[in-house]
Amino acid sequence: MFLDELTPVVKELIEQPLAFFGGFVSGILRLNLDDDPVKTWLNQQTGYTSTNGSTTDESNTKSEGPQSITIE
After folding, report:
1. Which residues contact 8 (CB under 8 A, 6 or more apart)?
2. How many Å apart are CA 8 and CA 34, to the nearest integer?
3. What angle do CA 42, 48, 51 make, to 5 degrees?
4. Are 33 and 39 in contact (CB under 8 A)?
5. pLDDT of 63
6. Contact 42, 48 (CB under 8 A)
7. Model pLDDT for residues 24-48, shown as the tens digit of each residue
8. Measured between alpha carbons, how far is 49 from 51 in angstroms, rounded to an integer?
9. Where are the alpha helices (DSSP H) in 1-72?
10. Radius of gyration of the chain from Cα atoms?
11. Would the pLDDT of 51 be above 70?
12. CA–CA separation, 61 vs 57, rounded Å?
């Protein structure tokens, strides 16, 4: 039962050990990938560009704020 839960973790560890331990260490050290030293190092190593998810969609201006609905 307990081994079924660990199977995906062990699979990722075997397939990509460097990426797994990199993510594990960054999680332990609570490194933010958007911080400047980590961000520039990632860009130099892999061409990784992080997005913060705060994109604004100007064409969707009617959805701002609360909306009223009617339920029959």
Report:
1. none
2. 27
3. 110
4. yes
5. 63
6. yes
7. 888 898 877 777 777 787 777 776 5
8. 7
9. 2-15, 17-28, 36-46
10. 20
11. no
12. 8
Structure-token pair, residue 55: 């994109």
Percent of the chain with pLDDT over 70: 74
The two tokens of residue 6 are 């660990």
Q: Encoding tokens for residue 64?
A: 């701002």
Question: Taking a C-beta distance cutoff of 8 angstroms, is the pair 5, 22 a contact?
Answer: no
The answer to whether 31 and 37 have CB atoms below 8 angstroms apart is: no
Q: Tokens representing 5?
A: 């839960």
The letter for the amino acid at 58 is: E
Separation CA 46–CA 19 (nearest Å): 12
**Residue type, position 39, single letter:** K
